[in-house]
Amino acid sequence: MIKITFKYNGKSVDINATEGQTLLQLAEQNDIPLVGGCGGACICGSCRVEIDPEHISFLPEPEFNEQDILECLPMCKSTSRLACQIVITKDMDGMIVTVG
């Protein structure tokens, strides 16, 4: 199993993930308060998260649509990503994702 830790509202929750699902799907299946307003179509930016710096290099670079949305959102950092665009792989074991 792949362990992903979600941090939100002062909580830290460890979840066992399956390779191939997105971070948004994992959050929705486990009642993590992460909104996917466009249903994962990469058009709204409501599922923006922060990836821990140790794991950001394990993710592929954002594609054009995701990068375009991130550039329009306030408070984005170099570790900001859209959860609907992050497909979980075994390299992400131990990754920390901050919601909000």
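(the above was protein one; protein two follows)
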Amino acid sequence: MWGLGNKVLFADGDQYRNEKSSEFGSVLTIPLRDDANNKVLGTIKLYEPRDKLFRNINRKLGENIAHLLSGRILAGRYELQREMRIQDQYKLLTAQINPHFLYNALTTIGHITGKQPERARDLLHHLSDFFRKNLETSGDTTTLDHELEHVTSYLEIEKARFEERLQVQINIPGHLLKEVIPVFTLQPIVENAIKHGTSELLDIGIIKIHCTEYDDNFTLTVEDNAGLYVGNHADGMGLKIDERIKMRYGDDYGITILCEPGRWTKVNINLPKNREQI
């Protein structure tokens, strides 16, 4: 590489005039740089025939091409890192959710097996469906209807656990069910609404899942009637889901939380329409 290092090198025609076997009069060698790691990944070489001058415009063109390709290399690395962070967030979410949910589910089923064997069998089917859908998820996105199936399986077990003390209302327009969203977007929010909200009530707890639709985006809302939200925590589920959404779609999307103490908490999940396909 002409002792290239991290420099642009140019050899003009004078170096070739006594080499009759050479067809080239000038050569420009430009490094492809990975500036983030201070490395040279390769080179671009431009040649001119012996009977032509290497114009400055050609040199500028070569440098611009190298700069563009170096930028794409850097952008590709950032994109890979972003996808890896999203995957890490997803793995962290599933690691935290599944043991807690599994323990509660098995405890509930164990309590009702003797008195209500048919109901216990139904709950085992819901538990099986929940984890089967987890295993079927090959990426970190899913459709809204698939996510709602997760939520429904989870809620059936929680309704058995709390019996008449938990009511659920779900109202999502059918034409939005094929929208693609990050996996584990709704279920952790619903779990938090029960665990840190309605489970603390002496009266009936009500969970509402509904949607507000706009031209290019839509907002999923998980609402409880407890109003016990006291602020975000650095390791909270909502914060992790918000980070995943923002990393994938940008800062215009993510989670906002509203609370009227003692009355209700609303977790709004803002997502774009038709950005991805599965």
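Reviewer note on protein two: The chain has a mean pLDDT of 77.
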